[in-house]
Amino acid sequence: MQIDREREPSGRVPSEQIEPFPIPNRLPVFPLPNVVFFPKTYLPLHIFEPRYRQMVADATIGGQCIAMALLKEGWEHDYYGNPAIYPILCVGRIVSVQPLSDGRSNILLQGLERCDIHEEHFEKPYREATVRVKPKLSEEGLAADVRRALIEVLGRYLQTREDSTAWQGFFREEVSDEVLVNTLSIYLECTPLEKQFLLEADGLHQRARRLNDLIQFMLHDHHGAKGWE
């Protein structure tokens, strides 16, 4: 199974200056059971299965894009086939490839856009899909009270963590709303299904509110576990 390399917040918020990049209509799909990707975030991956080595090689000389998809429950019975995936996913651009001596590689993806799967294709060793980029809503950012509420609940959540200093970069005013919400969505210790729920939100405002609710739930669960209630 392909797994992502360990990812932790480093206090460095990914760059917001992501230039528009053409997304092919048909592109490789990399399904995983535990990874949900978001636009304007970065995802390191270790590639070792032969079919996904071929996928990276083809994508590198082709459109340079890979769609990251979440596997649905029950994938274990057909992992080496084509188990079902969630139809809303995020497309990433390959920004670096580190080949290893035995044919494996480490790659870094830059999140571009959310997409819907229109049709899946299985002619190659790996899955491909025809995708449609999901249109963005007209909103440019979060309402001030929504961002303020998210920062406040995040601050309370970080009081329960030993690595709170590594998250301080998220509190900077110059961090855009989209980078703030999507980076928190990928780093927070939510379940894959919860992260898929965030990815499928209809716009940034809804994602921020869902994220706020999830953090509130995590706080409540933590307090209950500690016997603070």
Account of the protein in words:
30% of the residues lie in helices and 24% in strands. It is an alpha+beta fold and 229 residues long. The protein has 2 domains: 108 residues, Archaeosine Trna-guanine Transglycosylase, Chain: A, domain 4 (Roll), CATH 2.30.130; 83 residues. α2 packs parallel to α5. It starts with 25 loop residues before the first strand and ends with a helix. The N terminus and C terminus are likely disordered.
List key phrases describing it.
alpha+beta, 5 helices, Archaeosine Trna-guanine Transglycosylase, Chain: A, domain 4, disordered N terminus, globular, 229 residues
| Percent of residues in β-strands | 15-25%
Largest sheet: 5 strands, mixed, barrel
Average pLDDT, all residues: 86
Give the name of the CATH superfamily of the largest domain: LON domain-like
What's the number of extended β-strand segments? 6
Name of the level-1 CATH class of the largest domain: Mainly Beta
CATH topology description of the largest domain: Archaeosine Trna-guanine Transglycosylase, Chain: A, domain 4
**What number of structural domains do the residues give?**
2
Helix-strand string? EEHEEEEHHHH
Number of helical elements: 5
Query: How would you sum up the global shape?
Result: globular
> Which stretches are low in confidence, meaning pLDDT under 50 for 5 or more residues running?
1-7, 225-229
* Gyration radius, in Å: 18 Å
In CATH, the architecture of the largest domain is Roll
Order of strands across the biggest sheet?
Answer: 1-3-4-5-6
- Structural class, from helix and strand content? alpha+beta
Distance between the termini: 41 Å
Helix content: 25-40%
